[in-house]
Amino acid sequence: MPVTIKSSHQISLMRQAGLLLSKVHSELKKEVRPGITTGKLDSIGETIIRDLGCTPNFKGYNGFPGAICASLNDTVIHGIPDEKTVLKEGDIISLDLGLEYKGYHSDAARTWPVGQVSEDAERLIKVTENCFFQGVSKIREGSDLADIGKRIEYCAVIEGYGVVRDFCGHGIGSGLHEDPDVYNFYVPDNKLTLISGMTLAIEPMINAGSGRVTVSDDGWTVKTMDNSLSAHYENTVLVTEDGYEILTLMEEEKGI
User: DSSP code of 161?
Assistant: First the structure.
């Protein structure tokens, strides 16, 4: 699939899809607490998305059963929500979800502390978020796609963390996953000149230990191979002539 350049009308739809998804994340953040199940978070998330007049685009995607991915502690991505998994004090949880609005998609992930967490866990969450913002700082029309991953990798490695290399970000628009692949590490051959109107889902997945991962028998759940903690931070981003616009930034995050 070729990389798509969105028209002004398509961008307006994607802005709205991003705004609505940011509202879902803000509401889900309020529900993250000890004692709640990942299944309950999934149910809440799906209800909010549908009440906004949107479709949860993760649900049924390639057979995925949930409306959200709920990834706890050493689960990197694609955690399947259920009623058996109960959040407890000191956990960290990554909530990755998206929605479709009038034929256009948004996709974003956040990692939240559950109650009071260790300093190490808190630091991992903050560094992963910083990796995202450092990566997108390289975006502007005419810049190189590979520079995003180069910057993300540098920011993680200098903190002593591992970058997941088996999964990456992606283009997004009328499809949830479009070209190009957006790596979180430097791939010199991944050359693409960024053009205003491109929309990308950029999503650092950073491990407290090594970047190596394993996929569980369910075919979905991705865990750190060394059982270290993992954090995930993702936004849908528009390339503009003079930089970028983050379409899924939560209201409380604006001004970062």
Answer: P
